[in-house]
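Hello,

Our lab assistant flagged a job as stuck in the queue for most of the afternoon. It eventually completed. Since we weren't sure the result was trustworthy after the delay, we are filing this so someone can double-check. Below is the sequence as submitted and the structure that was eventually returned. Let us know if re-running is recommended.
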Amino acid sequence: MTNTIQGLKPKLLKVKLFDFLEHLKLPDEALNFILRAKDVAEKQGRFLYLAGGEVRDFLLKRPSYDVDLVIEGSATDFLEELKRKFVFEVLFSSPFLTYKILLPQTGFEVDLVTARGEVYEDVAALPKVYQATFKEDVLRRDFTINALIYGLSPPYPEMIVDLVSGISDLERSLLRPLHLRSFVDDPTRVFRGIRYKVRFELNYADEFYQALSQAIEAQAFLKLSASRLRNELLLFVKREGISSLPMLLSECQNFELLSHSGLGVDGEKLEEGIKTLEEFVEILSPREVEDAFLLILAGFKRENLKRLFFADSVIDRLVKLYEEFRTNLQAVLTLPLIERVLKFDKIDKATLIALSLYLPEIRKEIKRYLFVYSKVYPELKGGDLKELGIEPGKQLGEILKKLREEKLEGRLKTKDEEIAFVKSLLYSAS
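-- returned structure --
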């Protein structure tokens, strides 16, 4: 953007408060909080506004489920006054002038931020922030479509304020950074931009490519911390879902973004991995999906695991496990069924799925285990065996193992058959 802050003339779009709040799919408690916050801001003569995604989504006629409030001036003074009007708890505040607020009746969380400017002292470093005007706050944002604000109090009450042609870019489906050093300062914006591109079916503006070239030249993606890289990639799954992964990762590959970030990933293997993940998703928790996705990206390579912020102890365990399986594939395949199942029992689902991708020789066995064998257990438990006169100890454990083996092999169907089997074992041992 070539305009100076002082020279920026906002484009204003009048939107009634009721109409804007209606598109926010929020509990009444949250809506009432916004209204009370508006009253306090007006009383204090402070500019309070909603920023970013809520405004963008309103213009796109998409529902929004978050609240991101921004106040010019001290948020601490603002919150002290607001507490006299509304019951809430400040869960925490951060050095970045942000506050997380909990509304007690519904457990809904609101983000409140002091209008701020940012200074980036190094490539890909976290910024230093300072209290600023709303115009500076707008200009620190990632893309023009996210730099739109909705005023709740004067000087722009009930107005969408556009300082950066964000409305025009939305109408033309363009994704444009606010300045050409944007991705040098914060390379996570590229991953975020890819998500917006796929989610909203946008096109990259010329400035996106120019800013990306500068970031690559500055090695910004390599300088991005491992924890931030991990978090951005996880947002592909958390925010966009598995069904969007092929398009998201295709965009990454088109820009060679994973390579620029220090990840050695085979494109064809990655594509196969997402299909594998889709195959198993029905038996995975959200956390297991995330773990499996990271392991598919890493491919049991030590350097990849480190780049994705795995702990050293976890890296050692995963690499050792992979090598153990890789060098003993035939031995694993020829294990008795019960021994193979017990071996797989000790490995979490995400790791097994990654092993099935990178060691295709055992894929069928892992799939059979995850969908069938992992769910097969005897109806009799330790307490039932104690009632049959078996003392806790090695014998009890061996009998439970034999019971499970018989169940796996299909030789025991009912609880009565299990009891008869246990009695026969006891009789044979007497």
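-- support follow-up --
The delay was a queue issue, not a problem with the job. The result is valid. Residues 1-6 have pLDDT under 50 and may be disordered. The chain is about 55% helix and 10% strand.
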